[in-house]
Amino acid sequence: MVQKTGLVRGFDEFYDPSTLELGQDFRTVRSEVIVHKAIEILKKYDNQENAAPVFLWTFFKDPHWAYLPPQGYREKFLNDDLYMTQREPVKINKDFYDSMHGVGEARLRSNERGFIHDKAYYIAQYDSEIAYMDKSIGTLLSFIGENNDNWMIILVADHGESLGENDYYFDHGYLLDEASINNLLAIKFPNTVQGVLRNDCVAIYDIYPTIADMLNVPIKKCDGNSLLRDKNISGRMIMLENSQYHEKDEAVKLYGCILDSYKLIYNKTRERFSFATIHQGRENVIEEKGAYQKIINKMQRAIRSLSHDSKDDKEEQMQKLKSFGYL
Asked: Is the pTM of this model over 0.85?
C-alpha cells in the first residue's frame, strides 16, 4: 500500500497502480485485476466474526486514452454498423497534447501502412474497453449478489469522453459539452429490485448526502441533495469549469452552469456567452435569447461569481486538487 495522495485518507486498505499489475497502458490497472483484488478483500471481511459494514471503492480507468483493450476485445466492434458510419479520416496535429480539430501525432496508432487515420478505429477500441470493463464489473456485482443483497451499490463516471464531438478528439476536460459532462450515475439501494429513471438534473456531489441519508447519519453542510429523500430536484444551478491548458494552442478558459434544462457557457478568454437548452443529452444553442433573459441573467450572475474567485480561493482549490492527486 502506497500513500501518495489524499485519496488514501479514511481507508483501512488502499492499493494504487504501483501496487497492482499494470496493463498495456503503463498508467492503468486492468479492470479484471481490480475486481480480483476487490473480491479477495470482500472474502477476507466476510470471514471475520462480527464484521463491521464494508465500504469498497473501486476505480476503473480502462476507457481512457490510449484505448488499449486486451486481446480478445480488439476486433469486437470493427466494421459494425456504427464503425461504418464513422469512417472519416482524422486530422493529425503536431502537438501531442492538442486534441482540438484533430489528434496529436504521437497519440495515433501505426501499422505496416503508417498512421491509422480512421476515426472509427479509435471509437471501436474505446467501445471495446467499455465492454471489457463492463464484463469485469459484472463479475464483481455477481459475487456481491450471490453472497449478500443488502448492499448499496453506486456506479458513477467522473467525466465523459469526446470522440470527435465539436471537433474535439479522444480526450476530456477542455470542452464543457454534453459528451464530457452528461455522465452515468446509477444507485441501487439495499434489498431493492425495481429501478426508477430520474429526469431531473443530478450531480456527483449528491452522492454524499444520499449515502448519509441511507445510513441515517447527520448530513454535514454540502451543496448536494439526498436522492433518496428528494425525488425531484429543480431550480438549482450546477457549476462547470474546464481545464484551461488542456489544449495548449487554444488556452481558452470556460465557465458554465446548468439550471434544469438550460445551459450557459462563458468563454472568459473571448468574453462571450453561449446559451442552450438540453434535451436527452443533446444541447440546442439558442440565438434569439429575449424570451429567456431572466433565466440568462440569473445564470450569468452565478458564473461571474465563480469566475471572479479571489487568488487565495483559487490557491486553496488548487491545493485541494493536488491533495487528491489530480495535479
From this structure: yes
